Amino acid sequence: MDIRELKTMDATRLVRMAGDFQIENAGVLRRQELVYRIIQAQARRNGHLVAEGVLERVQEGYGFLRALEASYLPGPDDVFVSAQQIRRFGLMTGDAVTGQALLLPRPHRYRQRARTRSAPRPEDLRPPDPALPGGKAPG
């Protein structure tokens, strides 16, 4: 299940999907809460949640996947990316990332956390620099 797909799904389909997951009072929940409960239910069934977005790294070393639907602005549905994942894949602010998202317990500071298995190398995402030998991307 794709998180982006859930966020853009119309309300009628969301309520119908919530019924499939046996989520109570789906018709009266706010959209954001309904999406969160569907994600929770899917995670309980051990399904895969796919998160994608553009990485925004913060000074502390970790980052968040920001979504186009939110104009890349911070929001409650952003996916947390650990500093370890960022270092492992050499990610930088502006990199497009797709990966499996883990749902964290409700009291946790962040709702979702990315578990990236692979990511494009940053030099693959940047245009080549004609000033460098062979027109290679700066790295």
Descriptive keywords:
single chain, 139 residues, alpha+beta, Transcription Termination Factor Rho, Rna-binding Domain, Chain A, Domain 1, OB fold (Dihydrolipoamide Acetyltransferase, E2P), 29% helix, 19% strand
Q: Count structural domains.
A: 2
CATH homology group of the largest domain: Nucleic acid-binding proteins
Mean pLDDT comes to 76
Radius of gyration: 17 Å
**Estimated share of beta-strand residues:** 15-25%
Strand tally is 5
Identify the strand order in the major beta sheet: 1-2-3-5-4
Spatial shape: elongated
- State the major sheet: 5 strands, mixed, barrel
Bin the helical content: 25-40%
Textual characterization of the structure:
This protein is of the alpha+beta class and 139 residues long. It folds into two domains: 3-44, Transcription Termination Factor Rho, Rna-binding Domain, Chain A, Domain 1 (Orthogonal Bundle); 50-119, OB fold (Dihydrolipoamide Acetyltransferase, E2P) (Beta Barrel), CATH 2.40.50. Helix content is 29%, strand content 19%. The protein is built from five helices and five strands; from the N terminus they run H-H-H-E-E-E-H-E-E-H. It has helices at residues 3-8, 11-20, 31-44, 83-89, 122-125; strands at 50-57, 63-66, 79-81, 96-103, 112-115. Helix 2 (11-20) packs parallel to helix 3. Mean pLDDT is 76; it is low at 117-127.
